[in-house]
Design brief:
40% helix; Rossmann fold; globular; 4 domains
Length: 732
């Protein structure tokens, strides 16, 4: 397996970014089947961070400035620059991959990640390493559109990035900080002397000056104490040079302080082994960090206990009771003194450090990554005959209903998935769509709107085109504009929608039709119900007015005549938040009258209003009865999800409802719906009907039922187009 690693870091320096780059390469080659090429960002001038890499036969350092290729001279414009620009790095990566394709690219840095993410050829086989402070808007937007994976340090950071990118957990790869190995088999039980150490860069927020001042106080008590410092990278935010000059004077002139300058990693290991306590105290601005410091693990690998901030991430990793947390000069002196004098404190801190470090060694991280690497390892040999992975492209303005389908194929080692997300029914980045179309084997158009029209007019005979048609398209002219002779399959999500559209489109399209319901992961919705759920009705989404929330209010009003405990949970964005809706006179009037009706009937106290939920399973756990009061629906996915969660479905008899939800409690009026709900509650039938709905959801909508029906469509080779399958005239 061949891996290309690139990050805009300088391997001539000793800092966290350079150590990260070298560590990732060394960790990957712990797998004997992996080789790593590191594309250098800067020319090599001295051996510091990269020294250990020279001893790894399966790690190559690719120095563009030493390349004899004419193409590289052109990229660099004939100059020995100090660093690659993002444009130069991207061009070099493209050329390297074209010459000898890589199985996996590991990339760090917003500008290069943005460029690679936009390339269908490269983005699909990439891991984009993203940090908390590297998640700028442009990078986030680019990675959200890509189907490459996002690598990040910690679960806290992943949670933060999921919120920013709106991406599923399956898109992420855990890539924690790491160290070569533990340098001692057992934790230290006693200190050897009183040597404190700091290793890393010099930054005002890294508290080196404050440490040295505090060390002076310790030295007054412990005359044999020493403070060993290694590092030579200065970061001066003011760019005046004053910080560097001041700190250099302190490092060179303070009694007991030994400044070793920049050292290779193996010499750092020797230095740490000779010391007793490491320091990673930083200013309070790092207390909200979602990432760990690699320096802490380097101390731990050498068996050293360490001083560090009691931040959330540090408490999560090392425990709330770790004995050497510091956040002030006074606590720094106090905790260091305790470690110098109290063998129990020292031994406890060392034991925590030793045990924690084991989870972050190269070998352990490599082992944890094996399930993620498997897809790339097999990508060049799917089917055993050298076939490349199937290239699947999903297209649409709203992909929420096919999210589970996308994630399923993303997780298959024999597939590469890309997304073409349109701005609305017709607007899109045409240049990007053309590039994606050239790349794809199979195109899935989610919704039969402008996307289906555009792709069906351009798809090649050797490609496979699938269009999935919902109810929304029934009232638009787009289906007639599709070049149906280029479409291999059209998927309908509900029988009544299929019947209506095939009358319009004719027998040629009917021959391509498949009825496959929307899919849900039923297991995800199996949550324990919350207290009081038995008396809560749920309406998830109540805009536009065809959702008919007035009918839900009327059902509630009839129920509370008999029992004041009933509540209606009205969840979704309010109508005022939809500019297009609020601009329509009839829509606005409907909701204004609805609010007056609620107020005049004194119903507000029985309403629980919520904005759109980011955790639907938790929402359904609060609900006993799910309402579907719409005038029209395709399938009303909320009902299927609620059934999977054990809610009793109470569904208006909109066209096709009985075919989509045959076991639901169907009604024609508010009085009938209220009577159904009242009888279910009074006769103790809620649990029985809830379980019945769960079984129906599992049998009809579960991913384990639906995905096997979709796989043959998406993975099929495209047959020769049917010349006779043309769109019939209106007379037909």
């Amino acid at each position: 397996m061949r891996v290309l690693l690139y990050a805009p870091v300088d391997l001539n320096l000793i800092d966290g970014s350079a150590i990260w780059c070298a560590s990732v390469a060394q960790m990957l080659v712990h797998d004997a089947e992996i080789s790593v090429d590191i594309l250098l960002h800067t020319p090599l001038t001295r051996a510091v961070s990269h020294l250990a890499l020279n001893h790894e036969p399966r790690i190559r350092l690719l120095d563009p400035w030493q390349s004899g290729e004419a193409s590289m001279r052109r990229i660099l414009r004939g100059k020995r620059g100090t660093r690659l620009t993002p444009e130069q790095a991207f061009e070099r990566i493209e050329r390297l991959h074209a010459k000898d394709p890589y199985d996996l690219l590991v990339l760090r840095g917003g500008p290069i990640c943005q460029r690679v993410a936009a390339s269908p050829q490269l983005g699909a086989r990439s891991w984009f390493y993203l940090t908390q402070h590297g998640a700028d808007f442009d990078t986030v937007q680019a990675l959200a559109r890509s189907n490459g994976r996002i690598a990040c340090q910690t679960p806290l950071l992943q949670e933060f990035l999921e919120g920013m990118l709106g991406t599923a957990p399956e898109r992420y790869v855990p890539l924690p900080p790491m160290v070569p190995q533990r340098l001692c088999d057992e934790p230290r039980t006693v200190r050897r002397g009183r040597q404190l150490c700091y290793i890393g860069k010099f930054d005002p927020h890294y508290m080196v000056e404050e440490m040295i001042d505090a060390f002076g106080l310790l030295r007054e008590r412990f005359s044999d104490a020493a403070f060993v410092v290694a590092g030579d990278k200065f970061h001066d935010p003011e760019c005046t040079g004053e910080f560097r000059m001041r700190l250099t004077g302190v490092l060179e002139g303070t009694p007991g302080v030994v400044w070793r300058g920049g050292l290779p990693r193996d010499e750092i290991a020797d230095l740490l082994s000779a010391c007793d306590i490491g320091s990673c105290w930083r200013s309070g601005q790092y207390d909200q960090s979602l990432e760990m410091s690699t320096k802490v693990l380097e101390y731990a690998a050498a068996g050293l206990p360490f001083l560090l901030n009691p931040s959330r991430i540090n408490r999560l990793v090392f425990g709330d009771d770790y004995p050497l947390f510091v956040d002030t000069p006074e606590s720094f002196v106090d905790r260091t003194q305790a470690a110098f004098e109290d063998d129990g404190v020292y031994a406890r801190a060392a034991a925590v450090a030793h045990e924690t470090c084991e989870r972050f060694t190269f070998a352990k991280v490599n082992e944890q990554l094996q399930p993620y690497l498997a897809a790339y390892r097999t990508a060049t040999s799917v089917g055993g005959n050298g076939d490349r992975p199937r290239r699947l492209l999903f297209v649409g303005h709203d992909l929420k209903f096919c999210r589970a389908i996308i994630e399923h194929f993303q997780n298959r080692p024999d597939c590469i998935v890309r997304l073409d997300t349109w701005q609305n029914h017709t607007r899109h980045d045409e240049r990007r769509s053309e590039e994606l179309l050239r790349w794809a084997d199979t195109v899935w158009c989610e919704w039969c709107l402008g996307n289906a029209v555009w792709y069906s007019a351009r798809v090649r005979p050797t490609q496979h085109l699938i269009v999935r048609l919902h109810r929304q398209e029934v009232t638009t002219p787009f289906p007639e504009a599709v070049t149906w002779s280029s479409v291999n399959k059209v998927v309908f999500i509900a029988p009544h929608v299929q019947a209506t559209m095939l009358k319009r489109l004719g027998p040629a399209v009917a021959a391509k039709a498949r009825l496959i319901h929307n899919t849900i992961d039923c297991e995800r919705f199996e949550r324990e119900k919350t207290p009081g759920f038995e008396f809560r009705l749920g309406l998830l989404g109540y805009c536009p007015k065809l959702k008919n929330p007035r009918l839900a209010i009327e059902i509630l009003r009839r129920l509370i005549r008999r029992d004041e405990r009933w509540k209606l949970v009205l969840t979704g964005r309010p109508p005022q938040s939809y500019a297009w809706l609020w601009a329509r006179k009839e829509e606005r009037s409907y909701y204004e009258k609805l609010e007056k009706h609620i107020a005049s009937r004194g119903l507000e106290q029985h309403l629980i209003r919520q904005d759109w939920t980011s955790d639907p399973p938790a929402w359904y756990a609060d609900i006993g009865f799910i309402l579907s009061t719409s005038d029209l629906e395709g399938s009303h996915q909320a009902v299927a999800e609620a059934m999977a969660a054990g809610c009793v479905p109470v569904v208006r008899r909109w066209e096709g409802a009985a075919e989509v939800y045959p076991q639901a409690q169907l009604f024609d009026s508010a009085e009938e719906a209220a009577g159904l709900i009242q009888r279910v509650s009074a006769n103790g039938l809620r649990a029985e009907l809830g379980a019945q709905g769960q079984r129906e959801a599992q049998e009809r909508f579960d991913t384990r039922v639906i995905l096997p029906q979709l796989e043959p469509l998406l993975l099929a080779k495209a047959p020769a187009p049917n010349a006779e399958a043309t769109l019939p005239s209106q007379q037909d």
